[in-house]
Amino acid sequence: MYYGSMATESPDTHRELVELRRQINYWRAQHTRAVERQAIWKEKARQLKQMVRQQEAQITELIQQNETLTQQIQALKAKVAQLQQQLFGRKSEQTKDLVPENHDGDQEACNASEATSESKNNRGKQPGSKGYGRRRRSGLPTEEILHELPKAEQCCPVCGKPFSVFPGSEDSEEIHWEVRLVRRIHKRTRYRPTTGLRSRRSDSLLSMGICG
């Protein structure tokens, strides 16, 4: 009987049966994947809900801390105001005790005395005081610079004979600012004529290399 039914099955019926089986397998696989995706999204939703609960707990804790800090700040402000009132209240009471209100002349004298005392206590140089003047800063590092006349000027312009070096030097100082403060001593070589020729201006011009 079974073989007879298979023998009588038409080709169209066989194709429909194959197509139905293929669709069954396809939708079964789709359902399996959908169930897996649903499980994944459920797990993610559970994790997000847990994070939301944790953040809500943190927000509640921060709000409580903020309220506590606000109360502490208000208490500290009240304490500061109380201390300021005590401090300045004492000063005003002392001022009233020192300066009675019913003595106008004494009040003016006291104000003038306070103004004079304040002007004397100002820092810095007071008007009308003596100036400081220039000071020789011998404590600075010293650098000596030797100045010599050019070769063409180391001879007498009258007779043409060379000068001889005169003992000592003509010194001058300057404060030269570079990276550090240095006290420079300029030493200019002094000369004198080697002959007996002298003039009235020779003594004053020897240091300049001119004898007359």
UniProtKB/TrEMBL annotation:
Region of interest called Disordered, as start-end residue ranges on this chain: 92-140
Keyword Coiled coil on entry: yes
Keywords for the protein's UniProt record, in alphabetical order: Coiled coil
Domain Transposase TnpC homeodomain residue range list: 76-141
Coiled-coil regions listed in the entry: 38-86
Biased composition range(s): Basic and acidic residues: 92-106
Keyword NAD: no
Classification via InterPro entries: Transposase_TnpC_homeodom
Designated name of the protein: Transposase TnpC homeodomain domain-containing protein
